[in-house]
Amino acid sequence: MSSITIDTRASRKVRELLKFLLENGKIDAALTMRRIPENNSYDLALITDASNINEAVPLIPVMTVNAGQVLSSISTSGKKIAVVLKPCELRAFVELVKRERGSFENLLTISHTCGGVFPLDLVEKGQIEELIPKYEKTISKGEIPVNTRDTCRACEHFIPMNADITVSVAGECESEKGCMMYLNTEKAEEFAEGFAGERSEQKFDPSVLQKTLNARLAEKEKLFASMTASGPGLDQLVDTFGKCVGCHGSNSVCPICYCLLCDFESANFDYNLPYFEEHLSRRGALRLPPDTIFFHLGRLTHMSFSCVGCGMCSDVCPVGIPVAAVFKKTGEKTAALFDYVPGRDAEESIPVMVYKEEEFSDIG
Q1: Could you tell me if 102 and 120 lie in one domain?
Q2: Number of domains present in the structure of the chain
Q3: Whose CA is closest to 244, among 308, 307, 297, 283?
Q4: H/E element, 3
Q5: For a designed S-S bond to 309, which of 64, 73, 131, 328 qualifies (C-beta 3.0 to 4.6 A apart)?
Q6: Do 209 and 238 reside in the same domain of the chain?
Q7: What is the mean pLDDT of residues 102-121?
Q8: Are residues 242 and 110 in the same domain?
Q9: In whole numbers, what is the pLDDT of the chain averaged over residues?
Q10: Is 354 buried (19+), middle (13-18) or exposed (0-12) by CB count in 10 A?
């Protein structure tokens, strides 16, 4: 495999690659973030006309939706698509592929060493443009930018695991050195053939980001410690999820909540008079909406071992519940029991789908 030297404006170079692929008929479409200049906002766009690629901002630190979730619905269309994904989005898509909710067959995956993304409220306030220069300078030094999502600052999986092309922008993309675009697979070599750039046989060296990893691990330790300040158990669950308003926004934006029919959205959980009367007869009072804590516990049970820590759930919560941090901490503990990292390998089975007689023999 090889690499291509690019300048420090890595996002522009990725945009040029997408345009090259479209103009030469190597892909039918590109899935990437796009800037909407009319209102200075951003969205995730599927672009088929090369003339529209100029609107693309592939490496912008904004996540309006987890692209892995969106990709699952279009990856089996038969079209050849180049997709630009953040590492957590790519890992989310890997988890969905394992659940037969997507396919890599017609995709060229492009990802990058990630400095994290800004919360959506900063996007809504139009503050992203003024934050970008400092953000880029900070991640080029391998440091953690301020104002990014707390789960991003605490994320240790910021290096793409399965990308055909890795764009290095964190740690080694300094002004005097430039950046690197690593072609990790034969598919990447084939698609990039003819694309301008100085090539070499250099391979990505994750050790250049050890400083960043250490800083992220320290942030994770602080984040997890802050969540246990009120003590473990039911009281903490009530303190954390008791203010839930039952909007179910967290599972709507979660890429791992993939079920076509969710029990929590079914008639089983509809509010009805017999339900109210039965509970009122026993308790004399009933919180409305009911079962909010049960909703979160149910989600934890279903997908905690596959949470990729993208942070979308916390970002859309209208009452500020740290859903992502809770799921990240719980998920890591669950996955550790099986030596499992969500999205690490598309061929690696999901723990809940594998039975091993010797598992947990130490606890009877």
Answers
A1: yes
A2: 2
A3: 297
A4: strand 2-6
A5: 328
A6: no
A7: 95
A8: no
A9: 86
A10: exposed
Element (H, E) at 240: helix 234-241
Q: Which of 253, 216, 245 is nearest to 327 (CA)?
A: 253
Question: Distance of alpha carbon 230 from its chain centroid, rounded?
Answer: 29
Last residue of a domain, one of 174, 204, 221: 221
Q: Taking 60 as the threshold, does the pLDDT of residue 349 lie above it?
A: yes
Q: Fill in the amino acid letter for 216.
A: R
Range of the domain at 322: 230-363
Residues 70 and 190 in one domain: yes
CA distance 197 to 193: 10
- Rounded Cα–Cα distance for residues 274 and 286 (Å): 13
Least trusted range by pLDDT, from 94-103, 155-164, 278-287, 299-308:
278-287
Looking at 221, 238, 263, the residue that finishes a domain is: 221
Most confident of 11-15, 20-24, 194-198, 296-300: 20-24
Q: Taking a C-beta distance cutoff of 8 angstroms, is the pair 180, 168 a contact?
A: yes
114 and 163 fall within a common domain: yes
Positions of E strands within 126-213: 165-168, 179-183, 198-200
Across the range 199-205, mean pLDDT stands at 84
How open is the CA angle 228-229-231, to the nearest 5 degrees? 65
Tokens of 142: 């391998």
